[in-house]
From TrEMBL:
Keyword presence, Ubl conjugation: no
GO biological process: carbohydrate metabolic process; pentose-phosphate shunt
Database matches in Pfam families: TAL_FSA
Keyword terms, alphabetized: Schiff base
Protein name in the entry: Transaldolase
Coiled coil (residue ranges): none
UniProt entry tagged with the keyword Transport: no
Length: 299
């Protein structure tokens, strides 16, 4: 049995990719999209036909990028999502621009804009998660959006304060970044894995309904040891390794954890969160620059 088959028996598999050819060929439960993934797919030319149809049918004279108005970027984003979503079983996470991560009102406006465009393109709202960095403003906005029937994926989760706020606000799903935690804090049994196990135990103890999507992995052991999560989102590199490698039951289910206090990351989590937002913002800006080039050079 390969590792992917084993994982599918325990959790739902999400692909951290916008590669339409990969997504077409495998039965993924969900997708976690972001500008850098879409940028990569555009550069490797897998979207050539999609882009050609889009540029022929959409007004290139509207705003390129905007927090409040419907922009050219917004239309392209949802047009691409429209071409991906038919190949997945569950939900797709659509990311807001990182620049508004600390602005409650703009998060609300942008999220409603995404849902409006999804409806325009014929995508059902129950297939969409708005992907928001787990700042205080982001968590507050996600709680408000639930009133409008809009569910969210709170990403860049690095400490239990974020987790507790998400749980208390009944956020649909949270994405702890396993690898980035492991990179930043030493723990004998892997700090990133142990952090997610602590989240799971806390959720179970107090019967919270928020789902857990483990993200940002550095090795296969991390993925295997978090197969109890509701979802695991993996990059294409790890996806290929999961297919090629058979499960070794001697390495799974390391249950030794709690090597630190539940709030162990408070001293560094704000830095990790800020760095993550900066990286997301850089990726978004690269995408906008590419769009600008395509608009000016498309025949």
């Amino acid at each position: 049995m390969n590792i992917l088959t084993f994982l599918k028996k325990n959790t739902k598999i999400s692909i951290d990719s916008a590669d339409i050819n990969l997504i077409k060929n495998y039965n993924f439960d969900s997708i976690t999209s972001n500008p850098s993934l879409i940028l990569s797919s555009i550069i490797n030319k897998s979207y050539n036909l999609i882009l050609k149809k889009f540029f022929l049918n959409f007004n290139k004279n509207i705003l390129l990028d905007s927090d409040e108005s419907i922009s050219f970027y917004d239309n392209l984003l949802i047009y691409i999502i429209c071409n991906l979503i038919k190949f997945i079983n569950d939900k797709i996470s659509i990311e807001i621009p990182a620049r508004i991560s600390y602005n409650y009102n703009k998060i609300i406006i942008y999220s409603k804009k995404i849902i409006y465009l999804c409806d325009f393109f014929g995508i059902e709202k129950n297939k969409i998660l708005i992907k928001i960095p787990a700042t205080d403003s982001g968590i507050k906005a996600a709680s408000k959006l639930k009133i409008f029937g809009i569910e969210c994926n709170l990403t860049l989760i690095f400490d239990m304060n974020q987790v507790k706020k998400c749980f208390d606000n009944n956020i649909y799903i949270i994405s702890p970044f396993v690898g980035r935690i492991s990179d930043s804090l030493y723990c004998k049994y892997d700090s990133g894995v142990n952090f997610v196990k602590n989240i799971y135990n806390y959720k179970k103890k107090y019967n919270y309904k928020t789902k857990i999507m483990a993200a940002s992995f550095r090795n296969l052991n991390q993925i295997i040891n978090l197969s109890f999560c509701d979802y695991i989102t993996i990059s294409p590199i790890f996806f290929n390794k999961l297919i090629m490698k058979n499960i070794n039951f001697n390495i799974i289910k390391n249950n030794k954890f709690d090597c630190f206090n539940l709030n162990f990351l408070n001293k560094i989590s704000s830095k990790l969160l800020l760095n993550g937002i900066k990286q997301f913002d850089n990726d978004h800006n690269k995408m906008i620059n590419l769009l600008s080039f395509l608009i000016n050079n498309f025949n």
